[in-house]
Design goal:
Elements lengths: L1 E6 L10 H9 L2 E5 L9 H8 L4 E3 L1 H5 L6 H5 L4 E5 L7 H12 L3 E5 L4 H4 L14 E3 L10 H11 L4 E5 L1 E2 L4 E2 L2 H15 L9 E6 L7 E6 H4 L9 E5 L5 H7 L2
Parallel strand pairs: 1-4, 1-5, 2-3, 2-4, 6-7
Antiparallel strand pairs: 7-12, 8-9, 10-11, 10-12
């Protein structure tokens, strides 16, 4: 019996690989993790396309209750965990993979496109990205400055920064690109290190790989005026650009 970690890609039910679809159809239980990102289709559309009943798996189920659900079932059944993007891009899935192996459960990974590879559509060269980080929801009494520090460290060596924006699909909460820019500007006001200013170049991305994806390039102050529509979102802060990247940025 096997626990399959199956990447779904970034858009809808059609993005699954042929290999992934074949494994879903033979699975006894099919879970969809629904807390690291979202698709442009519904669970019901996935069920219709795959011909399988799908169980939604939130963070609590995957990180705290997997031993009583996913992992327990995988000892005697074929279980598929559907993951938006690529299965091993989020540490939460790597942790579950490791726990499965420690329990002696056979695992198989089916890769797919992720935001880490798809950002090449912005015209920036993927291998010139530095450390990736996220921008969390702002709290009344606490605002983590890690994103600012990561941008600063990447800029020191001329690398681009990919910022993944916080989300809570269960509560329909999504940190927007405008929110992220405002958070970074507030940190800049506090730190005054000229790491991220209203004149900083940015690329705001929404729904990458979908037909209605939106990519806007420009200064931070200009992106604040944009309506990016529906999630998911990410924000890119370019580092030192190659002349080809500069040409594509200015198109």
């Amino acid at each position: 019996m096997t626990l399959y970690f199956i990447g779904l890609g970034l858009n809808n039910e059609n993005d699954i690989s042929v290999k992934g679809l074949e494994l879903v159809k033979k699975a006894d239980f099919v879970y969809l993790e629904n807390y690291t990102s979202i698709l442009s289709c519904t669970k019901e559309q996935l069920e219709l396309f795959y011909g399988k009943k799908i169980i939604l798996a939130n963070r609590v189920l995957v990180e705290q209750n997997a031993e009583q659900t996913i992992l327990k079932q995988a000892k005697t059944n074929n279980v598929a965990l559907l993951i938006i993007g690529d299965p091993l891009c989020a540490t939460t899935h790597v942790d579950l993979w490791q726990r499965a192996k420690k329990l002696g459960i056979k695992t198989e990974i089916v890769h797919n496109a992720s935001i880490v590879s798809a950002i090449g559509v912005t015209g920036l060269q993927v291998y010139k990205f530095g450390r990736i980080t996220s921008v969390p929801f702002a709290q009344e009494d606490y605002m983590p400055e890690t994103p600012y520090d990561v941008i600063k460290d990447n800029q020191k060596i001329g690398l681009h920064t990919l910022l993944l924006l916080d989300l809570d699909p269960e509560k329909n909460r999504f940190l927007t690109i405008n929110d992220a820019i405002n958070i970074l500007l507030k940190i800049e006001l506090k730190r005054n290190e000229k790491v991220f200013t209203p004149a900083s170049l940015c690329i705001g991305c929404a729904r990458i790989s979908s037909k209605d994806q939106k990519i806007v390039k420009g200064k931070a102050k200009d992106l604040l005026k944009e309506d990016f529509g529906k999630p998911p979102y990410c924000l890119i802060i370019p580092g030192k650009m190659h002349f080809v990247e500069e040409e594509l940025f200015n198109e």
